[in-house]
Amino acid sequence: MKYTILLFKFLFIFFISQANISFAVVQNKIVANVGNQIISSYELKNKIKTMLFLSNQELSQDNINRTKSQAMRSLINYKLKKQEVLKFNIDNNQEAADDHLKNISSKYDTNIGGLKKIFLNKQINFDLFEDEIQTEFSWQRLIFSRFGNKINLNEKEINDELNDIIKIQQSINEYKLAEIEILVENNLENEEQIKGINNQIEKIGFENTAIKYSTSSSALDGGHIGWVSSKSLSDKFLKLLKKMKIGDVSKPIIQSNTITFLKLLDKKTLNIDNVNLDQIRENIISKKKNELLNLYSNNYLSKIKNNAFIQFK
Fold it and tell me: Which terminus of the chain is more exposed, N or C, with fewer CB under 10 A?
């Protein structure tokens, strides 16, 4: 009788453990193939939870449903970038990744170790989150290594522009900006995407929407791009900013393959006598280079996405 009871207990534990394993297999199934990589249901769930946490949203079924498609798009982009980074043996930019993690941690009044504990308490896989950040910075290195030599700015034009500033203007406007940039995959969906972004800005705020939806590298910092001189902005952007008040969000700026929203965080006017023209010149060059690199990045990602085998299960 004793052995019968022991055998029964053993079989009960065995079947329960097998049921748990089977449940885990069902829960952690492959939901998509992206090139030679996969996206698992666990990764998708973790990405949704991460996006909702970073954008200060409640983990509710409604929010999960609204975030799922964007989480999947984000994971597809991540997998494609990861594939290219590995293909070209791009080293991790650990220093940049750590700086970014420290910046995120500071928002929760803690350090990276404390942020890991927060993720653990919320049952979010920190390692997956960290790898996405490292991959993004490695991707930026890849883009610069492949296209950096194609960025040729006309030094004479830049110097002539500075001379015009000195001759014509007595002051220079600077704008503190944040951005949300989304890739346009289908022009027919523009109106729907714009409506969705505007709804999210109204509901969860600009910064949280940038974290959740923006494809620009500035999304890592809530869309913040800092102070920008009026002389380094395109006419299209400048015309909108001149009409905006501090705190305003611009109308969507539709370009060839992106839609951009700008938020005016602050603005100031600098007297030309007190301006470091060398610094302005460097700012103009830096802005133009970043715009071109961002264009190359979006185009390259679109290209490999169009050529990749992406299959949903």
Answer: N
